[in-house]
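ok so I'm stuck.
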Amino acid sequence: MCKLVEAALQNADQCEEELARAAELHELELFKQPPPEEECSICFIRVPTMPTGKRYESCCAKLVCCGCSHACQMTEGDIKCAFCRKPTPASADESRDQERARVMGKEKEVDDANAIYNLASDLFDGERGLSVNRSKAFDLWLHAGKELNHGPSYFAIAQNYLNGHGVRRDLKKAIFYWELSAMCGSVRGRRNLGANEWKSSNFDKALKHWMIAVRDGDERSLKDIQKMYKDGHATKDEYAEALNSRQSYLDEIRTFQRDEAAAFHSTYKYY
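replied:
not stuck anymore, here's the structure
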């Protein structure tokens, strides 16, 4: 009997070590700086992380920055895709069908994360002529996240668990999907993780999350770090590092063309 107890205790110790190692590896992965947003398909400069700073062209699945999109609109009118110059869909139904073709096409390369995300959002809310089907929406978001590393899809699931929209409210699941979204590059997911750690008084982890978000240009996270500095939870050097990171991001994404677009209308704001 003593040998059995000893073996059980050894197994328990091994399990604890494995769990601790798994938690350590998870944290290492969680706090990695994700790769930057892809380049604009026209000017080849990194697209902004801000949603209004880029456009998804459903006809050709290209991501185009606000500057190139605006420049095309000024020369061609709002009638053609900025990249492939195909006519813009004449109606919401046509736009929806164009995106659905990129979700349900027979060829594998048509498995388009942005189109899947948009279709899921339409199904969740019953938009663009579709009936509400939240179960299907969740399945699509999960597919885009798991198979295509699509951060916004994971973030959408997290927000629904946070607010209890279509599912039972569950903060643990919201945090889990925030983490997945952040590891896929979602700045909003990263910001929310920082806010959650702040509420729990885990200031070191909050600062880590917000520093990563600031390196991807998130102004709200910079303001949160400024508040941490004023409250004594971040050092002067850490705040200075955050300011420098934000400036480095702006230096990377700013162009005259994008500034022109942002000045033309707020829907082109990119930082």
